[in-house]
Write a structure and sequence with these properties.
Elements (H helix, E strand, L loop, with lengths): L1 E2 L2 E2 L14 E2 L2 E2 L2 E2 L5 E2 L8 E3 L5 E3 L10 E6 L8 E7 L14 E2 L1 E2 L3 E2 L5 E2 L2 E6 L5 E12 L4 E4 L5 E6 L2 H4 L10 E6 L10 E3 L3 E3 L6 H9 L4 E4 L3 H6 L4 H11 L2 E4 L7 H24 L7
Parallel strand pairs: 9-19, 22-23
Antiparallel strand pairs: 1-2, 3-6, 4-5, 7-8, 9-15, 10-11, 10-16, 12-15, 13-14, 16-17, 16-18, 20-21
Helix pairs in contact: 2-4
Length: 295
């Protein structure tokens, strides 16, 4: 059914057929150009919907003869009143206009993340304009619908060197598959440092960035830090590790660095053991100094 500019149809099929499912749109007897679309439905966990008798449903959004742009970020929110939005220097992202123009996001179906685990991402999809855009800057924002407040990322703007337009991709590499361009993101770091306590001796949280963060960690009893940022990540996020080392030294906090590439499952699997060894060493060092180790 449908009408106007939006059409939809429901097709039932066995889950084992999803990975090889191909399709194509036909309007008034006219086939869209390019090769068959290759479904990505197998990458997400179908969501049970009451309208379809609680069967699992996977949504395949598409744009006729166009390109769909999709932004995804994995960042669980604990407050039911909070939701993720995105804004930036692109028509589909609101062109940095006030909050009413931010691109809203919704939780997608469970999918396999870049680290190999399952999770639900905040997603925003919209049709690409005809023209390409270069050097696009953008940021994610957490909106609280109850308090009417906005929490911005406390980092330099995210940057993309190129976002394709519908005209340049017609018949190109996107045309023969899902006609979709995607950007996966993560690591939403707020201005105020927050970390989770994992008994009996661990804290887990984003990377500290300033003297106030280190003071907060010291007050919580932290004796050691395992930093997993790569040098490239520190440079992109403008984290001065020499300064942070000095701040840690002044606070009596021992620093260990175990660089692990963001959202790279193979690198995580290969290097996580070094992180565990670093935690063990920091705990033993604190105990040897007569302190209760907390890392």
């Amino acid at each position: 059914g449908g009408g106007g500019e939006r059409w939809e149809a429901v097709v039932r099929m066995p889950s084992e057929d999803l990975a090889g499912f191909k399709y194509k749109f036909v309007a008034d007897g006219h086939h869209e150009s390019g090769g068959d679309r290759h479904s990505d439905a197998a990458q997400t966990e179908p969501q049970a919907e009451e309208e379809f008798g609680w069967e699992g449903v996977t949504t395949l959004e598409s744009v006729w003869e166009g390109l769909l742009l999709r932004f995804l970020i994995f960042h669980p929110l604990s407050d039911a009143d909070e939701r993720m939005v995105i804004t930036g220097g692109h028509p589909g992202l609101g062109n940095w206009q006030p909050v009413e123009s931010f691109r809203e996001m919704g939780l997608g179906g469970e999918r396999t993340l870049l680290t190999g685990v399952r999770g639900r991402c905040w997603e925003a999809s919209f049709p690409a304009p005809a023209e390409d855009y270069r050097d696009v800057q953008y940021r994610y924002v957490i909106l609280n619908t109850r308090t009417k407040t906005a929490l911005w990322e406390n980092e330099p703007n995210r940057r993309l060197g190129f976002i394709p337009g519908a005209a340049s991709t017609a018949g190109g590499k996107h045309a023969g598959r899902t006609r979709e361009w995607r950007q996966f993101d993560g690591n939403f770091v707020a201005k105020e440092l927050k970390f989770d306590w994992v008994p009996p001796c661990l804290f887990v949280g984003p990377y500290p960035q300033c003297a106030e963060d280190v003071a907060k960690m010291k007050a919580a009893g932290v004796t050691g830090v395992v930093n997993v940022q790569t040098d490239k990540d520190c440079m992109q996020r403008m984290v001065n590790m020499d300064m942070m080392q000095q701040l840690y030294n002044a606070a009596g906090i021992e620093l260990a660095r175990v660089p692990i590439e963001d959202f790279h499952g193979a690198d995580l699997a290969a290097r996580v053991k070094f992180g565990a060894h670093a935690v063990d060493r920091l705990m033993r060092n604190a105990g040897g100094a007569g302190r209760e180790g907390k890392v």
